[in-house]
């Protein structure tokens, strides 16, 4: 087909290069993009894999030609209940779920969610700044739990909570936080 590819090892394919010590797989693929171009292949064991880093081509594949590229690679372990999650869906079921989920992740909605997340992170930084100026210890685990719960509650549940500010008074924090439960 004329697609440039990373020369594979007879047993490992290109995996030995992806799994090198001290370098991330994303860095290796970035190096390959520079070396082979925006469309190239490599091998995972004996299985050929195509990398497409061309944005126009990706748009064609993921939107215009989605019906030809509906499936992702099969899961390594196809066991219950994973095969019924979004990650494990295939064929028509994946297409149906994708069409339901796609509007949720429009650029406008993602920008809105990013604004909420930035607001919550600013709140976190304010709390950390106040505590550090006052010389108070910072309990990092519960601090990040509060941030996580505030973001999830507002982004996913459309609920305003005070999990960061008033953890002891926040019923939502107390119900959700494993550290607040007794066994």
Write the layout of secondary structure elements.
Blueprint: H1 15-18, H2 25-36, E1 39-44, E2 47-52, H3 55-64, H4 91-101, H5 107-133, H6 140-157, H7 171-176
Description of the molecule:
The protein is extended, with a radius of gyration of 23 Å. The mean pLDDT is 87. The chain is built from 7 helices and 2 strands, in the order H-H-E-E-H-H-H-H-H. It is mostly helical. The protein has 2 domains: 1-55, no CATH class; 107-180, no CATH class. Helix 5 (107-133) packs antiparallel against helix 6.
Sketch the topology as an H/E string, one letter per element: HHEEHHHHH
Number of helices: 7
* Range of helix content: 40-55%
The residue ranges in which pLDDT falls below 50 over 5 or more consecutive positions are none
Mean pLDDT: 87
* Basic shape: extended
Major sheet description: 2 strands, antiparallel
